[in-house]
Amino acid sequence: FLNLQFVVIKRATDIGKNAFTNCCSLQEVYAKKLQKLAEKAFSECCVLTTINLKTVEILQSECLDECFLLNHIELDSLQSVEKDVFQRCYLLKDYRCKNINFEHDGESFIISEQTENKNAHNRVVSWGRLCAL
């Protein structure tokens, strides 16, 4: 996958462990049916800027860590998230998530609250690289 720049995933619902780890040229991922990203699925995809996560329900540990250029995500269906999912995603400034609230510690997201009612929150939170909430 050394020169892979974009991926279109039409049918798959799960991306397996380490599936695209260290794909240094990968910039865009388009998938309409994704439900789960396994551990380190897109870890170290350092130029990844675009990935459709609207249908994803499960994000496992470090599945998007070190995606330095990722700057916007929409997690409309997210139900479960593990630790260090967005670790070192320094440019990630905007996110939308209806079911889980996050805080940013300057380097990564941390879960601040999982809501009882999955439709209770629908907000956009923004921050810069060095801003801690």
From TrEMBL:
InterPro entries per the UniProt record, alphabetical: LRR_5, LRR_dom_sf
Domain of life, source organism: Eukaryota
UniProt xrefs under Pfam families: LRR_5
Protein name, per record: Leucine rich repeats-containing protein
Taxonomic path: Eukaryota, Metamonada, Diplomonadida, Hexamitidae, Hexamitinae
